[in-house]
Amino acid sequence: MKRIGLSEHFTYKKLFLFTLPSVVMAVFTSIYSIVDGVFVSKAVGDTAFAGLNLIFPVIIILGAIGLMFGSGGSALIAKTLGEGDRERACGYFTFLLIAIVVSGVVFGGIGVAVLRPMAELLGHNATRETVENAVVYGFVLMCGMPFLMLQYAFQSFTITAEKATFGFLVTVGAGCVNAALDALFILGFRWGLVGAAAATVAGQAVGGILPVIYFSCRNNSLLRFGKPRCSLRDFVRACTNGASELLSNISFALVSIFYNMQLLRFASDNGVIAYGIIMYMSTIFFNAFFGFSLGVAPIVGYHYGAENPDELKNLRRKGFLIVGIAGLILTGLGEALASPFAQIFASSEEIYLLTRRGIYIYSPVYVLMGFSVFGSAYFTALNNGLVSGLISFLRSLVFQCGTVLLLPMLWGITGVWLASTAAEILAFCVTMAFFFGFRKKYGY
């Protein structure tokens, strides 16, 4: 099949084919990250599973720095490619990869230093064993932080290089390594939670190192390693462009902490376990929207650089329709899979019933989720980091924190499960307001 380029006019078929690898890549990434949870919950125990879920938001916060460089840098690179300056685009690409590795080492070290007090703070209502498990799992993942950041960044860079299929294959390979080593380390060597963490880091190393090898060799993509170049202004632009993705992941992690605190109050460790299971499903569905938006963003950035407002309008219309239909499908799928999905992880009848009920109440969130995710990525691609960041900040932090603190006061644990849906309704209104307000500036 002929490769679809960024410069083309996109029909629904072309848009589907171009974004499919990034959707599958994002979904598969979430699925293989869940493998740890399956092995730990079934083979190590509920307390270890609770510890994993307790510290995982901290890992997400630090790893999101790689996502910021990847998404924000891709917006800058795609715009530069649209302007016809490939050499400068490759210089940006090389510089950003160096910045990612350095950031991974620095923030991984900081994470190790603050890990125990952070785990004790987050688990002040949890058992001591749960806190200790969080420290053990977090330490190993902090040591692999450069790999996680690289893997996150290459989800965007491979798409911008018109090598989304290669990115997907790397992700599949990383997932297979993770799953195989989970079985070997946990079931074979009996390493428990340490084995689960080591398997995750090994998978992330595959996902981070293989693309580095590929782009360092001669290849037929739009990007390759070259002389690093990036002025302070361009670096700030890349970080600003990607701030929405960073804020989104930081906000998700912080909101997870608030959810865990509320659920520890209403249902003790079982509430944290149930929320972790629900978030596994939510992460899969969210990543479907995120993968699509990730795939569309380089196209938007390219046509913005090429000054083609008609194609920007075309991508906006088609994007809205696709995420709207997908939201309805995923809501129905979430309701249908509530029982079997809860059974995969739940080790007791109490946890199963709590999780199943939570999924039933939570699932309507997917109807509107895709609009704000797509909107944030769209403005990132337009190099408008401020608007993109505001959408993410309001959606994933302000609205989520407000609803998860308020609604449980009215409806108890039911209010916890309803909080995300209420937040997405507010985020949808804000996103549509921004699109309407900027329609003249960008001509879409």
What does this structure look like?
- The chain is mainly α and 444 residues long.
- Helices cover 86% and strands 0% of the residues.
- The protein is built from 16 helices and no strands.
- It has helices spanning 12-44, 46-82, 86-122, 128-143, 145-160, 164-188, 192-216, 232-241, 243-305, 309-336, 338-345, 349-362, 366-381, 385-411, 413-437, 439-442.
- Helix 1 runs antiparallel to helix 7, helix 5 packs parallel to helix 9 and helix 8 (232-241) packs parallel to helix 14.
- The longest helix is centred in the middle third of the chain and has 63 residues, at 243-305.
- The protein is globular and about 60 Å long.
Gist of the model:
By secondary structure, this protein is mainly α. The chain contains 16 helices and no strands.
Q: Which descriptors apply to this entry?
A:
single chain; 444 residues; 16 helices; mainly alpha; 0% strand; globular
Percentage beta strand: under 5%
CA-to-CA gap between the ends?
31 Å
Provide the structure class.
mainly alpha
**In terms of quaternary structure, what is this?**
single chain
Radius of gyration: 21 Å
The tally of strands reads 0
Sheet bearing the most strands, described? none
The 3D shape can be described as globular
Order of helices and strands: HHHHHHHHHHHHHHHH
Mean pLDDT: 91
Low-pLDDT residue intervals, each spanning 5 or more residues: none
Helix content: over 70%
Q: Please count the helical segments.
A: 16
